[in-house]
Design brief:
The structure is a homodimer of 204-residue chains.
Chain A lengths: L18 H10 L6 H14 L4 E4 L4 E7 L7 E7 L7 E5 L2 E10 L4 E3 L5 H12 L3 E8 L4 E6 H12 L5 E3 H7 L1 E3 L9 H13 L1
Parallel strand pairs in A: 5-7
Antiparallel strand pairs in A: 1-4, 2-3, 4-5, 6-9, 7-8, 8-10
Chain lengths: 204, 204
Amino acid sequence: MAVNYPNGKKFHAESHMPKTAKRKDFVYSNRGMTLEEEINSSNEHYLSSGKAVIHKKPTPIQVVKVDYPKRSAAVIKEAYYRQSSTTDYNGVYKGLYLDFEAKETKNKTAIPLSNFHEHQIIHMKRCIQQQGITFVLIRFSVFNRVFLLNSSYLIDFWENTLNNGRKSIPLAFIEDNGIEVAYGFNPRLDYLDAVDKMLERTIK
Amino acid sequence: MAVNYPNGKKFHAESHMPKTAKRKDFVYSNRGMTLEEEINSSNEHYLSSGKAVIHKKPTPIQVVKVDYPKRSAAVIKEAYYRQSSTTDYNGVYKGLYLDFEAKETKNKTAIPLSNFHEHQIIHMKRCIQQQGITFVLIRFSVFNRVFLLNSSYLIDFWENTLNNGRKSIPLAFIEDNGIEVAYGFNPRLDYLDAVDKMLERTIK
C-alpha cells in the first residue's frame, strides 16, 4: 500500500512499529542474511550446544551424467532439480519430532498462500497424524519480524481457499495466533523458545 | 571362507541355514532390489497406509553452474557430491523420532565397521541425547538376512575400535542382540515391527 503524507513525504511503516521492534531492527537487521541462513545458523548453535538436532534437507537433485577425472573428485555434468515431497527442515528436540517450512514475504499485510505447495501441506498433515510437531516460520521482511505459526492454521487457510476462501494469511491473524520469534545473537533466531510457547498453549 | 568337501564339492553356506531362512530366500530373494530400494518401497507403504512418515534424505550436492535454457527446465552443468552430516533416513512414527542408516555387506561372518562413518556415529549419539530412536539396518546379502541393531551397540563397537578393539561386528553378536527383520510382500521389509520389538526390550 503506497500512501503519501499530505506534504508529499513517503509513509514509512517502520516508524509506526512498536519501539522494541524498531530497536531490534536497528541492532540486527540488514546484515544480509536470508531467513534460511538465519535458521541454519540457529540450528548449528542448537546442535553444538546439545539443545536439538535439526537439519535442513538437501535439495533433491536427479543426477544424469557424472565424470570421474583421474586423481580428483567426481564431477556431475548433467543434473536436474526435482520437487521435494517433504518440508525443508526436520529433526528431534527433547524427544519430539519437529518438522517445518520457512517462508519470507515482502508483503506488509499478509503472506500469500502461493508461498506454500500442496506437497508440503500433505506432508505436514501426515506428520501431525504421527504426533509430530509441525509449524511454519514466516518472515515479514519489510518489518524484519519472524513468526512461528502452528501448521494447523496454515492447513485451515489452505483448505478454505479450496472453498473460495481468502488466498493469504493476514499478518494480524499471525500476530494473534502465532508466536513472534525473538532475534538474538546466538542463536540468531531462537525458534525453539517459540516452540516451547506453542506447546504450552496446546497443553492449556 | 572357501571350503571344499572331501569329495571336492563346494561348501554352500545356504544349505546350512535354518529352514525358515531358506524358505524366505526361495520366495523373495534375487529380485535384484538393493537394501535401499527395499527400504524406500517399505517407506512408501508406511506413508500411504498412514503408519509412519519416513523419508530418505537426498544426497547433498554442491551446485556450481546452472544453465537456464529457454522454455525448459534448469540444467545443472557442474556440481559436486558433498559429505552428509547425518544418517540417510529419518522421520516420525507414533510420536517417536526415528533415525537410521542402512548398510549391506557381502561378508558372511561380520559387518566391518569401515561401512560406517564418524559423522554418522556422532549424529546418532546426538539424536540419542534428544531421546530419538536410532538404529542401523544391516543386510548380510549372501544370506539375504536383514537385522535391526540398536545403534548403542554400534557406538560401543566404534568406541572400542578406537581402543584397538575389533574392527567389525560379528553376525553372531547381531543375531543375539539385534532383531531380524521379516521379508514380506508389502511392506517388503517390515522394519517398524522390529522397531516395536526393540522398544519392548528397552522398556523391560
